[in-house]
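Input record (Table S2, row 352):
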Amino acid sequence: MTRVFSGIRPSGRLHLGNYLGAIKNWITLQEKHDCIYAIVDYHAITTPFSPEELRENVREVALDYLAVGLDPKRATLIVQSQVPEHVELGWIFQSISPVSWFERVPTYKEKIVQHPEYVNLGLLAYPALMAADILIYKADLVPVGEDQLPHIELTNMIARRFNRMFASPSRHSERSEESRGSRDGILRRSTPQDDSTGFFPPVKAELTHGARIMSLKDPKKKMSKTGDEGVALSDSSDEVRQKIKTAVTDSGREIKSGNDKPALTNLLTIYSEVSGLPISKLEKQYAGKGYAEFKAGLAEAVVKFLEPIQKRRRELEKKKGYVEEVLDAGSKKARPIAQKTLEEVKKKMGLT
Ligand code: TYM
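Output record (tryptophanyl-5'AMP complex):
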């Protein structure tokens, strides 16, 4: 059975970008596959945080997971820090990977500009822990938004490196291959045959149509969990209307998508995703009409889309202890799988 793994940092409430870029696929995939979905709290401490907020955010994200339709009977929902084997494998991966692989990761470069006062080693090593999250379950598929593709690429590089160093019959060739390879020691791509026979299987990213939802304030930036850049799944109808009303638009009056209209393209993508109507149909519907009418229509479509999610959320909030129970059971179910992989890894490395 195909194994699926994905995760979200509990650094705030989930927004439409998270949903349309990733979780929408999680829900479909849980029907047919063996899915493990994590709240990756160890990743959340690589950027500024407060302990109270972190605790609260883990619960908020779990409520969002359940409210959007992740079903604990179908998918295993875990908290990363409750399965500490992730971190142990992450350390191993850091120890076998060149620093240069991490220094060029786009999100690292973005984060050190965003938080110059908080440039820590964890932030640099972030993708090694992410690789461990995925590979500890030997996942085949990782449903994520487009921004995560460099991390998935790095996960495969780390997996191939581990396979060559410790889990392939021809592992003695590792050194010579590296010295023949690029200056910084990045191994050349292995053949598909190498990948499929290795200890860690190759990992594939699974993208949605809305794989990149942009900020309502700046269409050059992706929608994030901060400020009013995004619509949170738990925003009230009034908050949604206000955020969409004040969303930036492009110059001109036409309601059209295109490379020269990044803000409208983004708004049309959101409208299309939440309403199920194709962008071409929406463009026709709003031809000759102004931005105000278009935004009002979009706001109502988003409010309508969020209504059942929020209703379910309110019901879940009333069930005392339920969220904790789900996360506890999920983490307990996942842990033996993680322990088994880690044991095998340690044995191969002489760490017994
Ligand atoms: P995070 O918490 O930033 O985002 C969670 C998921 O939401 C997607 N996403 C978006 N998709 C489209 N448009 C957007 N504006 C947008 N913003 C966020 C992200 O692509 C992601 O799929 N590194 C990960 C967390 C992680 C992880 C993992 C993911 C840790 N370990 C293992 C998969 C597998 C992150 O920071 O996601």
